Amino acid sequence: MAESAEIILDGKSITLPVIEGTEHEKAFDIGKLRDQTGYVTYDPGYKNTGATKSAITFLDGEEGILRYRGYPIEQLAEKSTFLEVAYLLIYGSLPTQAEFDAFSYEVTQHSLVHEDIRKILDGFPSSAHPMGILSSIVCSLTAFYPKSIAPELSKEELNLNIVRLIAKLPTIAAWSYKNSVGHPYVYPRNELDYTSNFLYMMFSYPTEQYQQNPVVVSALNKLLILHADHEQNCSTSTVRLVGSANASLYGSVSAGINALWGPLHGGANQEVIEMLEAIEADGGDTSKFIAKAKDKNDSFRLMGFGHRVYKNFDPRAKIIKKAADEVLQALGKQDSPLLKIAQELEQAALTDQYFIDRKLYPNVDFYSGIIYKALGIPTEMFTVMFALGRLPGWIAQWKELRENKEPIGRPRQIYTGELERDYVGMENR
Ligand code: SDX
Predict the structure, then answer these.
(1) Which of 90, 100, 240, 407 is 20–30 Å from 249 (CA)?
(2) Is 129 a catalytic site residue?
(3) Which of 183, 307, 314, 352 is catalytic?
(4) How far is the centre of ligand 1, averaged over its atoms, from the C-alpha of 369 (Å)?
(5) How far apart are CA 337 and CA 324, in angstroms?
(6) Cα-Cα end-to-end distance for the chain
(7) Residue 2 pLDDT more than 90?
């Protein structure tokens, strides 16, 4: 007999069917709860709430498992490329050579952006944070490609919108950096692969061509793969919620970029480096900062630690930590004081009862900034790197929601405000 749950309310019994996924996760289906009982559920932060069914990414927070379309990220990080993982997430299977070549060719052909985007970029002050620029320019793509706004798109039109976004985000990201340092924009080169092209646009100058370093390209590829999707995290849920209103892909992703910017989410990678630099500037006493993180009267948190789902090591953090050692070794930066402070901090936290009791482990953001910094990427661009990596996941999740014709997202609430009262004229207040 199918599993179910019974709720008894005012002597009446309500049965909630149980649904089960392919990895045997289970949920009570409360789709008819309010109609049958007048009650809604209450779950701030959706800690216990499944918003959708999805076939894209599986993660197990207790076991520290993360798979994209069934493939373990450990294998993808080792054997795949970011563009191939993007194809896998968006279209559901690893591409054949012909499929990958066609996809890669299309992405290359669309890496240029409209010249008028330079005018928008030039309108930003050099002090503008690149994440604000990124979300603005991505949303402006609706102006350059107005057909992308249509709620009903043919498969070809949708794929063109997807290719355009995948192709142009690195160019927009690199140009937002160049804008912030007042340097000339560098155009993409068709002979370069996706990751190399981004590095080229970031670090080349009219006076000097960037020399690709295979260690750097490989490390960045791995980082982008590890950030590519993560089921229903805050920014992906934002993309889905905006997309559920039939808003355009570009508008939905622009919203997701803003959610990712939050320091509790993707913005944490910038916060981690700034925290490590503050500890270094303060003399490197990690115990002082561990104490601050434990002090309820201190708003300081150990950035890069803790996770809503992983109550064990974030599997991505394990891979990134190993990559950090390799990259710094290869670049002759193995004596990085920030790496040493991070390792000390990690060891101190992992043996401290406060962190053990709360199952707080390093997450994806704890070591990624150390690699970005070693690659020469400026701190303010770290969350932009996260967005570059997460883009295929946002696109895949938005596409799945629209293909499944999911209803517009509209949570309920429990009202705690004033009871009905009459208007009082200004003279009587
Ligand atoms: C990402 O969801 C995703 O999948 C996100 C992400 C992705 O790929 O999309 O994995 C990317 O966002 C990673 C997380 C990056 N953020 C940070 O590193 C910021 C620091 N971490 C936290 O603020 C926190 O751990 C969160 C936001 C990540 C998770 O917060 P929760 O699940 O809401 O947990 P909580 O804030 O309720 O904390 C539970 C307890 C509290 O203590 P008590 O009230 O029980 O005494 O743990 C404490 C918190 O004070 N706590 C921390 C802490 N994180 C949680 N204390 C010190 N330092 C921390 N980092």
Answers:
(1) 100
(2) no
(3) 307
(4) 18
(5) 13
(6) 63
(7) no
Dig out the tokens for 121 from the structure.
């970029």
DSSP string, 255-309: HHHHHHTSTTTTTHHHHHHHHHHHHHHTTS-HHHHHHHHH-TT-----TTB--SS
pLDDT tens figures, 327-356:
999 999 989 899 999 999 999 888 999 999
* Nearest atom in ligand 1 to 305's CA: 60
d(C-alpha 258, C-alpha 222), whole Å: 24
d(CA 36, CA 8) in angstroms, rounded, equals: 12
pLDDT digit string, tens, across residues 129-180: 999 999 999 999 999 999 999 999 999 999 999 999 999 999 999 999 999 8
Which residue minimizes the CA distance to atom 43 of ligand 1? Answer: 358
**In angstroms, rounded to a whole number, what is the distance separating the alpha carbons of residues 163 and 260?**
22
Please give the Cα distance from 285 to 345 (Å, whole number).
9
In order of their start, the domains of the chain are: 4-50 (2.20.28)
294 — phi, psi (to 5°)? Answer: -90, -15
31, two tokens: 């789709």
Give the whole-angstrom CA distance, residue 112 versus residue 132. 21
The token duo for 49 is 């709430």
